[in-house]
Amino acid sequence: MTHAETKTLTTDGAWCWFQDPRAVYVNNQLFAGWMTHDGKLIMGSYDPKSGDKKTFTLEEDWDVDDHNTLSILTLPDNRLMVFYARHNKVGLYCRTTLNPADITQWQDEVTVSDTNRITYSHPAYLADEDLYFVVWRGPTWKPTFATSKDGITWSESHILVQEEGREASNIRPYLKA
User: For the chain, how many structural domains are there in total?
Assistant: First the structure.
């Protein structure tokens, strides 16, 4: 695609570089998430072959903050699981598409963690263990994680990185997946 062929998925989108991945390419389609200027959390898709664009609003009133955007996990069957949280508020949530590479229908929202000061999610699927894994900045400002076998029931959260003697809240190790 040349610059002259560049396509715009949205003219009203922001995201923070701490969450990954913010966009994925699955089944010959591009999927991305963003926050709008009025606080909507949006998932979008673009099919470069047909030119078809779709959007789905995951949250209508999600506060106006680029840190509130989502991260995307592509599942082995090409369904999409997204993770999102309000910046420094309570709760990390996820939703999964009902069908592969289709953002028009979703399962109900699931609470991954109900601790406070959550942000910056990084999901992964560990195929050998058949395990979902998500890391985020947790309530102590440290990388925190939870796991799930089914994407619905999640383990208790655990701090992943915390150097003994350096528990102060101004010490913030950030993890990039």
Answer: 1
